[in-house]
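note to self — DONT lose this again. spent like an hour looking for the file last time. sequence + predicted structure for the chain T wanted, 158 res
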Amino acid sequence: MPRVSNYDLEDRRIKELVGQLWNAFTLLENRNEIKTFLSRFFTPTEIQMFAKRLELLKLADSDLEVTDLRRLLKISKVTIYEWFDKHDAYEEDFRIVTNRLREIERRRLKTLKERMEGLPKVPKRSSIGTELLKVGANLAYKGYKKRKKRQSVLKDVL
């Protein structure tokens, strides 16, 4: 994280300011208020950083390898290991949010599956394109072989 300021505040004043921040978050009543406030309060980069950290916390219990997480979230190994350490140290605190998010995702997927069951089945794609390519490739190869054969016969004759 970037340095906050070149000037240090007293610990008591820092606690007051942080308490005020928690109060501000608590006073937000719905998703729209939270989204509006945070999008004005944090930069897009900071919001993306928080979102990646949250996703990393959700995936901490998965069986994904560190390399998979790096590719998925585009973050460094150091960040992954730091957040895994935080996850292990404060697992119960993070679990409150991650469990609720997983439940929301589970419900969303269930609704999506139910909607898809009501839709007509889409027939499987036929492999006509693939078959046409094969036929075309075979014809081209046969033509190539004929030309090569003619060339070799002409060489022998001449």
